[in-house]
Specification:
The strands form 4 sheets. This protein has a 3-stranded antiparallel β-sheet with strand order 1-2-3. Strands 4-5-8 form a 3-stranded antiparallel β-sheet, with no helix packed on it. It is mainly alpha-helical. α4 packs antiparallel against α5 (113-131) and α14 crosses α15 (371-377). It has 3 domains: 3-92, no CATH class; 96-192, DNA polymerase, domain 1; 209-383, Intergrase catalytic core (hpI Integrase, Chain A), CATH 1.10.443.10. The chain contains 16 helices and 10 strands.
């Protein structure tokens, strides 16, 4: 950013009316000594008056004892390193609430709709109430932020590890962007803040094969196929809902993930790794049956029967599909748990692919950018683990079930 842009941005953050920050000057004042032996110097210092940046002449004391004017002059020059920085005092008086307004405009608004929603919710519900009236420099102490974050976590607070980690990452992003915009010169203080030991708030379970078959049988055909795309081909529900006919490559038997549809917003997938091709396998016939020969038509258009007006409506919102179809089916079958949803089907897919092809190929298919993320998605498959334990036991002890004797 140019100096003019930085000046105008700082002025907006400070509540000014568009005036630029005062021109930066190089000052090299001479140290002076009082009759009591203490040293001081006089310099022009940046101040904020009624939200408008200005300069004022101030007398600044030099702490410590000096053996002569040469040592005092060295101390003055060290102090002037900060004073000669035109943004030093200005940025120290920027309110977090004002910075968040620019952060939303210049950074959050450029993210995907799902990310925007998450960022804005955390800023509104947690960050702004806690820090909005503070100055940005008040967050300079990592221990101060760490204590606050610790108070939000369960069991002391009510927030899960994942939520606390998201809040921590947003705070870190604020300082990263401030540094990028030349509004922060020091290290990012949030780098030393942590959400602590990772702990999932919601239980992650693995459906048995029989439970999976029962669940699919209770869903309407079109939604059943969409769930199978998540369950077998690793697609996110937003990627399945954003699937258009032109992205079904029946010649090569592949699904081309190029767009995602999330609660009314059509956009590219969430990261570069998510742009991928995955095999459709035996789903080719079902997917072809849903196509109408219109390249830009969405493949999945689940029919619902609303209580108002129209007899039939088309739905692609994951919340409605979960509320009216997926959850009722799981509850009726007796294996619903808090957190169960379309994401659970994707976890099943990552787990099964990992068992067969390894975590590397599962990462590629799922569109994860790291193997750690794929490992986090992989569920504990107790049947597979039991079979592996028994196979190893039998290789050492034979097939006897009598135990160690």
């Amino acid at each position: 950013m140019s100096r003019t842009s930085i000046s105008l941005l700082l002025n907006r953050l400070l509540g000014g009316n568009g005036e630029k920050l005062p021109r930066q000057r190089h000052q090299d004042p001479t140290p002076q000594q009082r009759s009591n032996g203490t040293w001081y110097f006089i310099a022009w210092v940046d101040v904020i008056r009624d939200g408008i940046p200005d300069r004022a002449k101030q007398t600044i004391d030099l702490p410590g004892d000096f053996h002569g004017k040469r040592e005092a002059r060295a101390a003055v020059r060290e102090a002037m390193k900060d004073i000669n920085r035109v943004d030093q005092i200005a940025i120290s008086q920027v309110k977090v609430s004002r910075f968040l307004e620019q952060y939303d405009l210049m950074h959050v608004a450029k993210q995907s709709k799902s990310t925007q929603g998450k960022y804005r919710a955390h800023i509104k519900n947690h960050i702004k109430p806690a820090f909005g009236e503070l100055m940005l420099c008040d967050l300079r102490d990592p221990l101060f932020v760490q204590k606050w974050l610790d108070s939000k976590k369960v069991p002391v607070g009510k927030l899960s590890w994942a939520t606390c980690n998201d809040i921590r990452n947003i705070l870190s992003s604020m300082f990263t962007q401030a540094k990028k915009w030349k509004l922060w010169e020091d290290d990012n203080p949030i780098e030393d803040v942590t959400a602590g030991r990772k702990k999932a708030k919601r239980e992650k379970r693995k459906l048995t094969d029989e439970q999976t078959r029962q669940l699919l049988a209770m869903l309407p055909y079109e939604l059943r196929v969409a769930c199978c795309v998540c369950l077998f081909c690793t697609l996110r529900i937003s990627e399945a809902m954003g699937l258009k006919e032109k992205y079904l490559n029946f010649k090569d038997g592949q699904i081309e993930v190029r767009e995602r549809y999330w609660r009314g917003d059509l956009d590219v997938p969430k990261n570069d790794a998510a742009i991928r091709n995955v095999p459709m396998g035996h789903l080719a016939g079902d997917l072809q049956r849903l196509c109408k020969g219109e390249p830009d038509r969405f493949v999945f258009q689940v029919e619902t029967h609303p209580k108002w007006g129209k007899e039939v409506s088309i739905c692609r919102d994951d919340r409605d599909l979960h509320q009216h179809f997926l959850r009722p089916a799981a509850e009726k079958l007796g294996f619903y748990w808090e957190g169960f949803g379309f994401h659970a089907l994707r976890r099943e897919a990552v787990t099964s692919i990992s068992n067969v092809l390894g975590i590397g190929q599962a990462m590629k298919m799922a569109g994860h950018s790291t193997t750690d993320m794929s490992l986090n998605y992989t569920l504990a498959d107790m049947e597979k683990q039991d079979a592996a334990v028994r196979a190893r036991q039998e290789s050492i002890m034979g097939t006897s079930k009598g135990g160690l004797q």
